[in-house]
Amino acid sequence: MASFALPSDEIVKESAPSFYAPLHASYIQKLSSKLSKPGSYEGAVTSHLRMSGVYWAVAGLSLMKKKEEVDDMMRMSSIVEWVFQCYDTTSTSSAGGFSGNVGHDPHLLYTLSAVQLLAMAGRLDDPRFRPEKTVEFIKGLMLEDGSFKGDKWGEVDTRFSYCALSTLAILKRLDAVDTDRAAAFVAECKNFDGGFGCLPGAESHAGQIFCCVGALAIAGRLDLVDADLLCWWLAERQTSGGGLNGRPEKQADVCYSWWILSCLSILGRVDWINKDKLSAFILRCQDPEGGGIADRPDNVADVFHTFFGIAGLLLIGHFEGDEAASEYRHIDPVYALPVDVVEKLGLSRRP
Asked: For residue 231, how far is the Cα from the chain centroid?
């Protein structure tokens, strides 16, 4: 029988390094200058999703630092000013939504990121923010079958179901939509393997599964999840090198440390994977010189994987007993925000 060898970047060859906290904090703090620099490659390729990029940066640093330190290091007052430059309060079709960058069209993805940023900054009460406008924007994107469009152009995806319900929950306005109908659509996207796709009939994917499980948790309908079957599928995503992939036969990627662990955490089955091997994989994906975490070992770090790598380490308790990490903040597996922020908002840590 022919043998099958996993890609070399998934094979454990050496012990994992320590966590480079100061380097990661410095890496995140320096991102703003890179993004705003004229002719910046990083700025050009992230222009359309800048709002989410800023959220990943602030959230990543917020897991390692106190709010006051984050406010100072990230100049949160300036970030809040920029967030409101991306807020649409005048158009007839998208008023109340936030865009990915100044001058772009509002979208549910970036509306959630903007609201998360305001929540972390403690600025949801800013007089420029009109929550009812944002609620109306979200309501207007819900379709008869319970799904949500991402924006006025009409794409439907379970990512948008999560974004809609999460934003409404943060604003304490879940009553504005039919959550049972929204949950029913998500349930229609469930597959024979227990996983979920972006639409009914679409293949199971770990990123979509987080969106669906998160949406159902917020809606109070986790009864629609086949927890044992789904968590078996998620646990099967762990490769020989300890990392997690998003679909069968794919390479491991640090971002799935969040997409998968959050679901296992919500459903109470984090112990179904080998946490030591996963933490070792994430730590090997760090940049030991410039900071940041990449998708896999020896690749270039980026803020997306940096945030989700830190979040993954927290979800598996990697820092427990580490005095140097005693002030790290836990992350909520449903809302992807520091737990203290979620508690201050009056949201339940668990569905």
From this structure: 19
